[in-house]
Amino acid sequence: MSQRILVVDDEPKLAALLAETLAAPGREVVKATSAQAGWTAFAQGGADLVITDLRMESEEAGLGLIERVRKTSPDTPCILVTAFASIEAGVRALELGALEYLVKPVRLRALRESVDRLLAPAGQEALAVATDGEIAGAFDDILVGKHPGMRRILELLPRVVASDSNVLIIGESGTGKEVLARAIHGHGPRKQKPFVRVNCAALVESLLEAELFGIEAGVATDVKARPGKFELADGGTLLLDEVGDMAPGTQAKVLRVLQEREFERVGGARTQRVDVRVLAATHRDLEEMVTAGGFRQDLFYRLNVIRLDLPPLRERLGDLELYLRFFLQKLSARTGRRIAGVTPAALERLRGHRWPGNVRELENVVERAMVLTRGERIDAADLPPLDTHAPAPGAVQRVFTLPDEGVNLEALEKDLLAQALERSGGNKSAAARLLGLTRRTLGYRLDKHGLAA
Predict the structure, then answer these.
(1) What angle separates helix 108-119 from helix 248-260, to the nearest 10 degrees?
(2) In what order do the strands lie in the sheet with 195-199?
(3) Which residues contact 97 (CB under 8 A, 6 or more apart)?
(4) How far is the C-alpha of 88 from the C-alpha of 61, rounded, in Å?
(5) What is the pLDDT of residues 194-227, one digit of tens each?
(6) Range 313-382 has CATH code 2.60.40.1220
(7) Which one of 147, 183, 184, 376 is most buried, counting C-beta atoms within 10 A?
(8) The domain 132-309 is classified under which CATH number: 3.40.1160.10, 3.40.50.150, 3.40.50.2300, 3.40.50.300?
């Protein structure tokens, strides 16, 4: 049975190129140069797959077309293509049902592979394994609570899971970034394939590259060939944990894999192809790093197709009792010890804590208290010492009052940097600690102000 692909782009040459790229026996590729013309073609003859540009007769014409197509035919996969990458467009595309969100210039080979996968019967069956409601329900155990940020993520997850687009997960340590990444993989079309994690902050640049791309025998004495994480994750999902700590040289090589789906092992010459969905997680502000020159803008756009922000526990203390019930049930099932809940005194102490370790810290506190308590409820005496007056991580204490006439912020920053260097005797690690910065971020700012000598 012939497959019909609808390509919609207001650049006729690009539409023709895409049509030529996707042409194959048993396929009919139909071109349209506006969203309205695309809708007319779809209404008249349908399509097994729709590929549309974002900006045509209006800034979001492509989104409107996807919305109309999905309302008429919910099972028709759609791919949105745009030269104007934005978080908002990516989120909106997924909400409307797009399964891919590609940034121009489109890598034709990658597009062809995506189309082949979406049109393959096995791929369609995999996408239909669970309903949106079933997927959302499956995440209730990790997205506990009624905080708007968590509810927003839960609403998006059915589309995120079904999509093959890259995902950037932002959140402080302990908020559940890896748990969320594993759940996205475990409920998606790649769930029968490997889930592989690499901690980008744990290794120096040379070792991280060997870990990611593998290494060929003979690179050094007694070194044996071994595959890297990209190879091990082939067909599945790779989590780049703490991606903000990746060195610039490694960033460039990872970007190539995302664009071309190919790489060479360290010390090797043979190019290897790979099919991997990439999820990235970080506690850093990557947009600030891009501005400061510490993170590649093109890599940021490739990773930031869809962004999920996990709020810290201190911002969702209204859900604290829900988390407590969840962890008590989870730990009771694991240990066989039944605890009815917590006393009001214990709850008051827990509410007063700032939770710098977030949900992970809370789980550890609950587990410890379950071991120590002799009653049916956890009491305040069962809890470890909790600092109920500590400022939140990253909180700014008022140490400077802005004068009425204002200040020169650039000059103030330069002066603070110079003072930190002077007080630390030129030790940049010590200066970074004084300013609450990473050494790398300090380096960026010193370069900016000409203080890096």
Answers:
(1) 50
(2) 195-199, 237-241, 277-282, 167-170, 306-309
(3) 66, 67, 70, 74, 78, 159
(4) 14
(5) 999 998 987 778 788 888 998 888 766 566 788 9
(6) no
(7) 184
(8) 3.40.50.300
